[in-house]
């Protein structure tokens, strides 16, 4: 019997101190401030994702340009090396006549 009375008393206390439903209460200023910060952080996160995607595209474009310039440099270096090799094979021009001519 005592246990039944204690239970009823405990049940009545719980009924008195029940939390209001979420739609019935106003958020505390701290929770409202936290919610505002979270929303700003989510916006910033989305901005950073977009910025990162744009930067990744830019990096890819610059890498392609760099590779093209490397190839052009390589081709120009080969042409210069061939010209230098041809110059080494030609007789030197001097004031004396070439005996082989």
Number of helices: 2
In terms of DSSP E residues, the strand content is under 5%
Pattern of helices and strands: HH
Largest sheet: none
- The percent of residues in helical segments reads over 70%
Radius of gyration: 42 Å
- Broad structural category: mainly alpha
Total strands: the figure is 0
Which shape, going by the Cα principal axes? rod-shaped
Question: How would you concisely characterize the structure shown here?
Answer:
The chain is mainly alpha-helical and 101 residues long. Helices cover 75% and strands 0% of the residues.
Describe, in plain words, how this protein is organized in 3D.
The chain is an all-alpha fold. The chain has a domain at 27-88. The protein contains two helices and no strands. The longest helix has 61 residues, at 29-89.
Secondary structure: elements and pairs:
Blueprint: H1 2-16, H2 29-89
Entry keywords:
mainly alpha, 101 residues
């Amino acid at each position: 019997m005592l246990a039944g009375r204690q239970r009823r008393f405990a049940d009545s206390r719980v009924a008195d101190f029940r939390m209001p439903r979420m739609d019935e209460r106003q958020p505390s200023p701290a929770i409202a401030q936290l919610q505002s910060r979270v929303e700003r952080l989510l916006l910033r996160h989305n901005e950073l994702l977009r910025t990162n995607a744009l930067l990744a595209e830019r990096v890819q474009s610059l890498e392609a340009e760099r590779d093209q310039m490397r190839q052009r440099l390589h081709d120009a270096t080969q042409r210069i090396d061939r010209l230098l090799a041809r110059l080494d094979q030609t007789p030197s021009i001097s004031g004396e006549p070439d005996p082989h001519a």
